[in-house]
Design a protein that fits this description.
The protein has 171 residues and is of the alpha+beta class. It folds into two domains: 2-34; 40-170, Beta-Lactamase. 40% of the residues lie in helices and 24% in strands. It contains four helices and five strands, in the order αααββαβββ. A five-stranded antiparallel sheet has the order 2-1-5-4-3, sandwiched between helices. A hairpin with a 2-residue loop joins β4 (146-158) and β5 (161-170). The longest helix is centred in the N-terminal third of the chain and has 33 residues, at 2-34. It is elongated, with a radius of gyration of 25 Å. The termini are far apart. It is a multi-pass membrane protein.
Amino acid sequence: MAGLISKLRLRVQRQTLLTVLPVLLLLAVIAFAAGAPASTRGTDAEALRMIDRAQQLLERIGADAAPEAFAGHDSAFMDRDLYPMLLDDKGVMIAHGWTATLNGSNLKDLRDVDGKPFILDALDGVALDGRTDVTYQWIDPLTGQVARKTMHARRLVLNGKPYMLAVGVYR
């Protein structure tokens, strides 16, 4: 009888292990995947490389071709939550990589949720120093939530006309 109980106990332990092991493996996969959202975010270095690439292209094709070059979520200038923006020195959006409907709009007086005139701050910064970083609160296109964002912007002159080229990084 003791031998039968011992065999039964061993069988129950084996079945418990076979049931628990896949659950533990699934939990490990979920825990590993929880770190994955970091890869859905662009970095400052990637944003600056995108600005370099966009500047090189715009110096070849000009500002008039920017809307088409930046347009669409499948363009070469769309990388997760990174996208370029080209504005003239008055604050008119020439090309917006995420929301093309903003093209042609004067955004100089646009303010973030805290009332910060971030476009004006960026325009002033690039006019003064040739480049600037402006941090503000904006709606994250991946989550729909308000988040901190830093716009890396630089002055760009195309055919003698000044522009601001920028890429933002959500924090």
